[in-house]
Amino acid sequence: MSDGTIQDAMAAAGLRPAKDLHIPGTGKLIRYRVEGDKGGSVNGWAVLHEMGTASFGSFGSWKTGATHTWRSGFDRTRAPTAQEQADLKIRMDLLEKARREELAKVRAQARDKAAKLWGRAKPATNAHPYLMRKQVNAYGLRSLGDALLIPLRDTSGTLHSLQFIYPDGGKKFLTGGMTQGCYVAIGRPREALLIAEGYATAATLHQASGLPVAACFSANNMEPVARALRAKFPELRLVLCADDDRQTQGNPGLTAARAAARAVHGVVAVPVFEGGGPCLS
């Protein structure tokens, strides 16, 4: 059982509404602006079911992808009856159905917005400050204002979202766009395909090896991308190029690369630091 109200839980999770918010207990999902988000945005969502004195719900953010559950008023001194369990399952299924339906709408809106922005943008040049600093080329990128636009596509080529990279290196993704299993490809697949995290790392690997590379944008997305590419290219050798986060507890970059390699029968490549600089091994 959770203490307090669902609004208390939302605030504790960093998803406090920007203004007073009424969440109906009918299972209808509502969207709202999270405190600190820009005006007009509705990145937050919440859905609540009330069952007599008991309530349960979930909430989250389309911007961050976070999802949380909450419940209150359930009697923990006795086991629920079979009828109570059946009622709860029905309501939980309805809650999840509402979340999935709204998520589908958000994803569709993001795809439409990504397509419009991509259509307005111009082909990027290697003179962008971020690319010059990283000493990499613009492979299939576009620019809009001072931002680089990096497309996030699935294995069918569908554009789902965009990553924006600014001259100072700041990065953000299009709110609501799907990232899981999406990547940006550099080069055409042949006997081997490298998978890395960020665009700059991927471009560096391509320039150094001449091999095709897929940038998956984050350690958490390495395995979903690897699985998607394995399904599309069952005979291809997949090489998971780890970000060696040795200064971070658990070394998440290396851990993710190893997990992805196990999942797709690939191999892992890690940077070896020699003379103060990294080289691939």
What is this structure, in a nutshell?
This protein is α+β, with helices and mostly antiparallel strands and 281 residues long. It has 6 helices and 16 strands. It has helices at residues 6-12, 82-120, 129-134, 199-209, 222-232, 252-264; strands spanning 30-32, 44-51, 54-61, 67-72, 122-123, 142-144, 147-153, 159-165, 171-173, 184-186, 192-196, 213-215, 237-241, 267-269, 271-274, 277-280.
Task: Describe what you observe in this structure.
It is a single chain. By secondary structure, the protein is an alpha+beta fold. The protein folds into 2 domains: 107 residues, no CATH class; 158 residues, 3-Layer(aba) Sandwich (Dna Topoisomerase Vi A Subunit, Chain: A, domain 2). Helices cover 31% and strands 26% of the residues. A hairpin with a 2-residue loop joins strand 15 and strand 16. The longest helix has 39 residues.
Number of discrete domains: 2
State the strand order across the main sheet: 5-6-7-8-9
Compute the number of helices.
6
Oligomer: single chain
Mean pLDDT: 90
Largest sheet: 5 strands, antiparallel
| Derived structural class | alpha+beta
Pfam families: Toprim_3 (PF13362)
InterPro entries: TOPRIM_DnaG/twinkle (IPR034154), TOPRIM_dom (IPR006171)
Domain Toprim: 191-269
Protein name: Toprim domain-containing protein
Pick out its properties:
single chain, globular, alpha+beta, TOPRIM_DnaG/twinkle, 5-stranded mixed beta sheet, 16 strands, 31% helix, TOPRIM_dom, Dna Topoisomerase Vi A Subunit, Chain: A, domain 2
